[in-house]
Design a protein that fits this description.
Layout: E1 6-9, E2 14-19, H1 22-34, E3 37-43, E4 46-51, E5 62-69, E6 72-80, H2 83-95, H3 105-121, E7 124-125, H4 136-154
Antiparallel strand pairs: 1-2, 2-6, 3-4, 4-5, 5-6, 6-7
Length: 157
């Protein structure tokens, strides 16, 4: 029996809606755990998982939130720039850059602050299949992976 899987790419996150039961949700969560996700928050009808960055494999940090309302699951997932990275860049801009000895330190300072501001503004990225520019391949790959994991877990024989 084919499942009714609805995926919307909302710019800052991708949202999948699917119907299922306890068995299907456990199967999906186990498949995420096998893909190096760890559980960060667990409540009665809510579960949040995250995956650390594997930058040498062209993979950025990712978060998945699973909301359950009866037999309907709403799964939000997105790639993100961690706050620690943004804080580290800002700290280095303020502390290390003035002493780095660049000829145009003012220009480097303005560019670094611009990058930090852009990182705060665009901290989350959806996983659309036609992603362009920022993390294009990674976002497309995770779209395929999440869709496959959802279909495998929630498809009823």
């Amino acid at each position: 029996m084919a499942i009714k899987l609805i995926i919307h790419h909302l710019g800052r996150l991708s949202r999948a809606t699917v119907r299922g039961g306890d068995t299907q949700s456990k199967k999906f969560i186990n498949s995420l755990l096998l893909n190096n996700f760890i559980i960060t928050t667990e409540r009665e009808n809510y579960l949040e998982l995250r995956r650390r960055a594997y930058l040498l494999q062209d993979d950025w940090p990712m978060r998945v939130s699973i909301y359950r309302n009866g037999s309907e699951f709403q799964i939000d997932y997105y790639l993100c720039i961690p706050w620690g990275w943004i804080a580290g860049l800002t700290f280095l801009t303020w502390v290390a850059l003035p002493f780095a000895g660049f000829q145009n330190a003012e220009l480097a300072f303005v560019l670094a602050l611009l990058v930090a501001t852009l990182a705060v503004y665009k901290q989350k990225f959806d996983c659309r299949p036609n992603a362009r520019f920022w993390q294009e391949r990674t976002r497309q790959r995770w779209n395929e992976t999440m869709e496959r994991l959802l279909r495998e877990a929630f498809d009823r024989p």
